[in-house]
Design brief:
- By secondary structure, the protein is an alpha+beta fold.
- About 55% of the residues lie in helices and about 15% in strands.
- Strands 1-2-3 form a three-stranded antiparallel beta sheet, with helices on one face.
- Helix 1 packs antiparallel against helix 2.
Length: about 140
């Protein structure tokens, strides 16, 4: 009878040890996958926000008499309201251009500037970029 108790107790202890080893092997992989999904999700979200901000900037830029500085300030304000800091905004616009001429709003930001992960290995050297071109309204 004592042997049975000893075997049962010894079997439970070895199972707990096996579970600890399995956790030690699997936990870092799960954490890495979770952080990677968060990072990729953030990049996709910010890319869409850049596209939307470039569209809004281009919509403003096609209006008669709008200066490049006004468009840049509006785009930067839109991005900062969404907690995206440090974007570069380039507006190719001639405020006195004839109707039908093109206006382009380019936005770029290094991916490491928008990362939620401390040392982003997935996007360390990437630059997110969005561009929208529209035509001036007729005058």
């Amino acid at each position: 009878m004592n042997k049975r108790r000893f075997r049962r107790h010894s079997n439970q202890a070895s199972r707990q040890g096996a579970a600890a080893v399995e956790f030690a092997v699997v936990a870092p992989l799960m954490i890495l996958l979770t952080m990677g999904m968060m990072e990729i999700g953030r990049v996709v979200m910010v890319q869409q926000l850049l596209v939307n901000a470039s569209r809004e900037g281009a919509r403003l830029a096609v209006l008669p008499g709008i200066e490049e500085v006004e468009v840049q300030n509006q785009v930067i304000d839109d991005l900062e309201s969404m907690a995206i800091m440090g974007a570069t905004v380039l507006v190719t616009n001639d405020p006195n251009a004839a109707g039908g001429s093109s206006v382009t709003v380019d936005i770029s930001i290094p991916a490491q500037d928008i990362s939620w992960v401390p040392n982003p290995a997935f996007t360390l050297d990437k630059v997110l970029h969005a561009s929208t071109t529209m035509r001036h309204e007729g005058q």
